[in-house]
Amino acid sequence: MKKLIALLLLCLLGSSACASVRDSAGPAAETRKETVLTAQDVPGPEIIQKPIAFSNVRRRLMREYARIHYGEEMETIVPRAVVVHWTASDSMEGVYRFFYPEEQPKLKNGTLNVASHFLVGKDGTIWQLTPETALDRHAIGLNWCAIGIENVGGADGKEDLTEAQLEANIRLIRFLHQKYPTITWVLGHYQQDEAMHTELWKENIKGYYHGKIDPGPIFMQGLRDGLAGEGVKFF
Ligand SMILES: [Zn+2]
Asked: Do 31 and 65 fall into the same domain?
């Protein structure tokens, strides 16, 4: 039953797996779908696929980043944590354009451009920018194991993330946790100081660190409340 639910979840996300459920099982699957699924099983968020540039250039830069920071080349991660951010800006399209290029030559310690796996707009719209298991550069010390969710907002450090964003993040994290049971932690980027003292932290470059305040304690409290009983840990 778990497998069917997983397939149907993929369907909701518009994956090609959808066709195989329909094709192989026919109308019977439709009937089963209604009897099997409950609101609790499928709180699945609507995720819009909006990929950023992802060619062999990005893959090469990921390997380079991993070699510099972790001492081993890797392009993919086993997700152990979700790191929640804000963009410190108000334009979803603007952030998308900023993340789009594969390389940013101005960056130090590898020129892989910054990016997160998901970007959530103020109205709760969720864009997926890269595969969930891609090694994205969004949180120093944590990129080797963390899925990143960026939320549009927080310009001038103001805690202005919306209720719609909170609900979208709760649904998205619940979905990710069900898909990747290896995820045990959910943290705000500013909680990196605490993560630094756990097994989540890996960083070979001494002193490579930027202080962070995103996405603010109010949003993290909302996530903690909304995900209570989900089986994930918070700082
Ligand atoms: Zn951040």
From this structure: no
What is the sign, positive or negative, of the torsion defined by CA atoms of 196, 200, 204, 208? negative
Query: For residue 169, what pLDDT band results from cuts at 50, 70 and 90?
Result: very high
**For ligand 1, a single-atom ion, which residues have Cβ within 5 Å?**
85, 189, 214
Q: Is the pLDDT of residue 10 over 60?
A: no
Query: Which residue from 66, 58, 134 is spatially nearest to 101, judged by alpha carbons?
Result: 58
Q: Which residues of 215-231 are buried (b: 16+ CB within 10 A; e: fewer)?
A: bbeebbebbbeebeebe
Strands 81-86 and 118-120: unpaired
**Same domain membership, residue 16 and residue 50:** no
Centroid of ligand 1 to alpha carbon of 196 (angstroms): 15
Same domain (yes/no): 135, 214: yes
Shared domain for 56 and 152, answered yes or no, is: yes
In a domain, 10, yes or no: yes
Q: Model's pTM, two decimal places? A: 0.82
**Cα 177 to Cα 233: distance, rounded to the nearest angstrom:** 11
